[in-house]
Automatic annotation (TrEMBL):
SUPFAM superfamilies: P-loop containing nucleoside triphosphate hydrolases. Residues 2-230 form the ABC transporter domain. Keywords: ATP-binding, Nucleotide-binding, Transport. The lineage of its organism: Bacteria, Bacillati, Bacillota, Tissierellia, Tissierellales. Gene3D superfamilies: P-loop containing nucleotide triphosphate hydrolases (3.40.50.300). It comes from the Bacteria. Belongs to the ABC transporter superfamily. InterPro entries: AAA+_ATPase, ABC_transporter-like_ATP-bd, ABC_transporter_ATP-binding, P-loop_NTPase. This is ABC-2 type transport system ATP-binding protein. The keyword ATP-binding applies.
């Protein structure tokens, strides 16, 4: 289990992360959902020991996380937001380099397994600089899995990837979930968190203000959303437990146009913050 206790991170007078308390159970697939600048990457960096909290503590199975705690670091895999590949090395050579860092002896079979899992076996001799964005991202995930970690942190793993590439990465992440890995990933793609996660944390201005299943978050707000455009040229949102309630509401108001649709995690986030997840 990962425990984040009263953790804050200050940069000068700016609180990038503000008094976060969070528990992540073994085998949990948790999405940290929020807009750019909300504090997601800072939390990942503290969880992986790259940044030291200004206040508070982080524990992994009772062990305090720090930059020098190699016992924990051997158990985690990290996919950063920006590439950590050597562009001059081939896909295969990048994985050899990662394996040797972890002193993995029988790495050849492991690398072949990962290349197959990532659908990169036909591209293993290409230099990283010649891979597409989606292939590069999948290679980064393979690199993070080289040591067979129990816990995997991914920071915006599908950012800048086309839809087809994103869906391939989704399949990889679902595979990790099926293996029982503990996965925490950050995203501002709503459908990604909704589709993949069994728990979602909503974060804004450095504070985590909700942790729940996607379904419960939506159901608590209201299964149906009425989105209508009024005569003042403003879009409004109202939420209802059933479609009958939504239709009755529409019949009682004036509008220019409207739609009744299923509530999304975007609606949940916007309802709490008046801010879109973009």
């Amino acid at each position: 289990m990962i425990e984040i206790n009263d953790v804050s991170k200050m940069f000068g007078e700016f609180a990038a992360v503000d008094n976060v308390n969070l528990k992540i159970q073994d085998g949990e697939f948790l999405g940290l959902l929020g807009p750019n600048g909300a504090g997601k990457t800072t939390i990942i960096k503290m969880l992986t020991g790259l940044l030291k909290p200004t206040t508070g503590t982080i524990y992994v199975d009772g062990e305090k996380m720090s930059r020098n705690n190699m016992k924990i670091k051997k158990r985690i895999g990290v996919v950063p937001q920006y590439t950590n590949l050597d562009k001059e090395l081939t896909a295969y050579e990048n994985l050899i380099f990662a394996a040797k860092l972890f002193k993995i002896k029988d790495y050849k079979n492991k690398i072949e397994e990962l290349l197959t899992f990532m659908e990169l076996e036909k591209h293993k001799n290409k230099k990283a600089m010649n891979l597409s964005g989606g292939m590069e991202r999948r290679l980064m995930i393979a690199k993070a899995l080289i040591n067979d970690p129990d816990i995997i942190f991914l920071d915006e793993p599908t950012v800048g990837i086309d839809l087809n590439g994103r869906r391939k990465i989704w399949d990889i992440l679902k595979g990790m979930k099926a293996m029982g890995k503990t996965v925490l990933f950050t995203t501002h793609y709503i459908e990604e968190a909704d589709y993949l996660c069994n728990q979602v944390c909503l974060i804004n201005n450095g504070r985590v203000f909700k942790k729940e299943t996607p379904e419960k978050l939506k159901n608590d707000l209201g299964i149906y959303t009425v989105e209508y455009f009024d005569s003042e040229m403003k879009t409004n949102y109202e939420y209802f437990k059933d479609k009958d309630g939504a239709e009755k509401y529409i019949s009682s108001i004036e509008y220019v146009s409207y739609t009744i649709r299923k509530t999304t995690l975007e609606d949940v986030f916007y309802n709490f913050t008046n801010r879109k997840v973009v």
